[in-house]
Amino acid sequence: MASPTVVRKGKVLNYQNNPHLVLDVQHRTQGRQAGFMQVTMRNLNTGSSTNTKIRTTDSVEIMHTDMVKLEFSYIDGQEYHFMEPETFEDIVLDESLVSDAKDFLVENQVYSILHVDDKPISIELPASIEMKVIESAEGVKGDTASNVQKPATLETGLIIQVPLFIKEGDVLKVSTSDKSYMGRA
Hints:
five-stranded antiparallel sheet, 3 domains, CATH 2.40.50.140, mainly beta, SH3 type barrels
């Protein structure tokens, strides 16, 4: 157990028996009362965010965390297989753990996996990722009004809107935050 004054952004706390990632911390005082920490954190199991006050006289449990770099190999039903690049060990993650990241899992790409107490909790995606277009309709000649877009299917099955000049086989840079086209790679 530790004092709440050592809580920092990026730490993982055991709050209500669930791991919570600290998003923001502010130390506050009110007149003659004891100070408190205003903590915004996200539940790593459910993804919901909460804002709570922790008095400086209380104690908190800071969980041990590691970022492990793993290479994505393949999908087998509900299981996602990753490989440890140095030991070539196969690590299997369940579909519930992968959740929203599955649209961005490209074979042979390295991803950071957050481990809390030696248990994988979530996949940390980069800001953008490069993916190949596997299906895209041809642009209609003469249809060049400002910012006309068409759907394109990427190698992971993700469908995004792209400019008319994009064709099958192109490699695109896609934002992982809003699934939008950023440009050619």
